[in-house]
Each structure stands twice: as C-alpha cells, then as structure tokens.
Amino acid sequence: MRKLMAVLLAALAVLGPRATEAKDLAMARAVKVTTLSTMLADEGLGEWGYSALVEVDGRKVLFDSGANPDVVLHNARAMGIDLSDVEDVIISHFHDDHTGGLMTLRKALMAKNPKSLSRLHVGEGIFAPRFEKDGKPANTFPMLADAFRASGGQVIVHAVPTEIVPGAWLTGPVPRHHAETNWNPGLMMDEGGKRVADYLPEDSSLVMPTAQGSVIVTGCGHAGIMNIADAAQAMTGNEPLLAVIGGVHLFAKPDAVLVETAARLKGLRYLLGGHCTGIEATVRLRELLALDRHTAVVAAVGSRFVLGKGIDAGMIAGWAG
C-alpha cells in the first residue's frame, strides 16, 4: 500500500495543477481584476493589446502581457503595483498583442524574485504553425517559449480545464458549439490535411466560480464569448454568469451578432469590455443586457472589478452621475 501511495503521489506531482471535468469547483471568496493594458488609459500608457492582474483569495495571476515590450511594466509601476510576487502567467493565445511584454516583465521582475512569472500557462494548440496567405510562417510563439524556457521558466500546456491557483480555472481550448467567428481573417493553419482559416484553437479564458456567479477573464475571446460562457457553465454546473472582463472580439460585428450574444449572456451583471470588445459594441451590449454606465463599462488602464463591489471604471471611462 505504501508503494502504491508513493506511485500515486509521484503521478500527481508530474501532472502539476489539478485538471478537472467535474462541476463541484470550490468557490473563490475574493476576486479583483485590474486592467494593465488596453487602449484607453487614465494613467500609464494605452496600446492595442491586453493584460490584467487577477487576484484570487490572496494569490495572483498575470493574464496576458500586452503588446509593446515595456507597457505593462510601465503601467504597473505607474499604478504602484508590484508584480514581482506573481509566479503564474497566462497567455490566452499566440497573437503578439498579448505576448509582447512577457520577456521584458520576466527579466525585470526576476531581479527581485527569481520565481516571478516562472510558470507560463497556455492552451493546447498554441504551438501549431500558422501561415500568411502567401505561405509565410506567422507563429512566433515557439521562439518566445524557447526564450522563456532559457530564462528558467516552465511552459505548461493545458488541454482541459485546469486550476491555476485555488479558485481560478483556465478553460484550455474551448468547444465551439456556437458558430462564432471572433477573429480577424488573414492567417491560415493546417487541419485534417487542408489549409483552413486560423480559428485560434488554443484560445483560453480564466473562470472563477463565486457565490454570486462566475467571473470570466478573456484576452480576445477568439473562441467566442457565447462558447466561453457555455464552457464556464459546463465547468461550474450552470453557475450564473456574474462578470465578463477583458477583450471580447466584437468591435467589427453587425448588430445581429450583438443581439444574439446578449441573448446568450442574459443575466450577466457586469461587463468590463477592454481591447477588441469595441466602444460601440460595449455600449450596445449594455443596452441589450439592461445594464447601465456603472455595470457595463469600456475598460481603461487602471480600471478594476472587485467581487462584492463591482466596477471601478476610473476617470476616462467612469461616470459621476
């Protein structure tokens, strides 16, 4: 029996973070999400990119790293946020507006804490080759991962929902039940012996079940926010949706898509729409979801969602009325 237990414990150590298909996830008690990179900015720098600091029950995760190498580091310092104690970082998908700051952050923070951003979590499929229409290779993430490993970091690939820190679950690749095409055309990938449009199969979001409902953080939502919502509810046993935070790739979509999306998200209480969500799309979703200027907001650098308090939009996106 002791030998068997030793084998099982060794296997669990190899598996790393806990993977699950169960629906009895432990509830997060405290959740705070702070925007570090998006287009609008109260302080610091705005850019076409996304990053957020996610704090769950005293543990921290960096979700994406922005586009330009120095922006997230600069913005965190401008807001007085110390990222050196963050050991887990998620890259939602391979696009460089979510990966650009990773190595700058890792190298700068390692000077204070060698374990800073030492565990990189990604969805299965992120290493798949992508191509321009002329056949030119277009996925630079493998080179970034090599540099990350060379710095002493560990890259962890997730094929199923996995608990990254207690109370926060990475979806891994999201099943596509709804025919959402929430990505820009142009890149291609190989699938089933054919070259097809790159639909970002690795796109992953973070889900935090709470007593008030699930909080979702997404980088671009290339999997489609309806599909991501379905995945969150499948993970949590149909917990209601409390908040959607981050990029939801709807800025160029027609109104019919926004109407369909809002119907699927009915009951959502908070929307902090950053990056590729789009200003007009956020305002339209606010109307369709029967939310208001306090509960459906265009994200800015420094804007926050806090469980139990709601959205602190900041100045540029806030409303004093």
UniProtKB/TrEMBL annotation:
Entry keyword annotation includes Cell inner membrane: no
Keywords: Signal
Highest rank taxon of the organism: Bacteria
Pfam families reported for this sequence: Lactamase_B
PANTHER family with a match to the protein in the record: METALLO-BETA-LACTAMASE SUPERFAMILY PROTEIN, METALLO-BETA-LACTAMASE SUPERFAMILY PROTEIN (AFU_ORTHOLOGUE AFUA_3G07630)
Signal sequence region: 1-22
Keyword Isomerase applies: no
The protein, known as: MBL fold metallo-hydrolase
SUPFAM superfamilies: Metallo-hydrolase/oxidoreductase
Metallo-beta-lactamase domain residues: 50-120
